[in-house]
Design a protein that fits this description.
alpha/beta; Alpha-Beta Plaits; Oxidized Rhodanese, domain 1; five-stranded mixed sheet; about 25% strand
Length: about 280
Amino acid sequence: MSEVTNIAAYRFAELENLPALRAMIKKTCLTLGLKGTVLLSPEGINLFVAGTRQSVDQLLDLLRPIPGLADLTAKYSRSDRQPFSRMLVKLKKEIIAFGIEGIDPARQTSPKLQPGELKKWLDEGRPVTLLDTRNDYEVKLGSFKGALRVGVDHFREFPNAVRELPDSLKTETVVMFCTGGIRCEKAGPFMEREGFRNVFQLDGGILKYFEECGDAHYDGECFVFDQRVGLDSQLRETRSVLCFACQMPLTVEEQKDPHYVPDISCHHCFQKSEAAKPG
């Protein structure tokens, strides 16, 4: 198969006539030979699709005339294979599940910090707390050096995790980040509601940072929610895999563990089974 173009994009906007919009997008994607997932809700759109460059651009050209989506911006990467097995277009209550009423990124978000500006701050040694808003299983593949992880297994746990952060952070400069930026659109306003006074979000997340700044101040790779599993700082697919049993991402080194059996289980599974044994 020729090179595949992958795009990730989201936009918070008040969308209407969702069933008709879903049908139109699904038909278009199938016609264009695209695969991936598109989430639609009254609060906006979130999509991850892959196909030929011409096809993904045609999809974006179709979406941008929709009221509220004119500024829909995609992050591009390339792969040697199609990372999705089918095309899904789903209707959801939220395009990123958070569960907190009154958070409306279409109207209010925290200030966005461009990747180049963050790199400049870090180059200069500027006092800043980097807050990783992602799930723990994502963070294990890589993160910014010295970043503080919130320690969650699902983004819905983020509010309680924030309430456990030290009060001293409320007066410090905090730059939060995630894979592509969408989680921070909700995380920022929530943190401000909780009394954090100087919160920024990394515009475009880790993927845009990789695109513009490479691996500066970053260790490892970035977990992605498709069959590629991980991307390096050049946005190339790594050799990380998911455990068949527990779905934990495994680096190349972890795949050398004697308890890793491809398509069966891994050392994380073994540790859990050992811990569950009586006495």
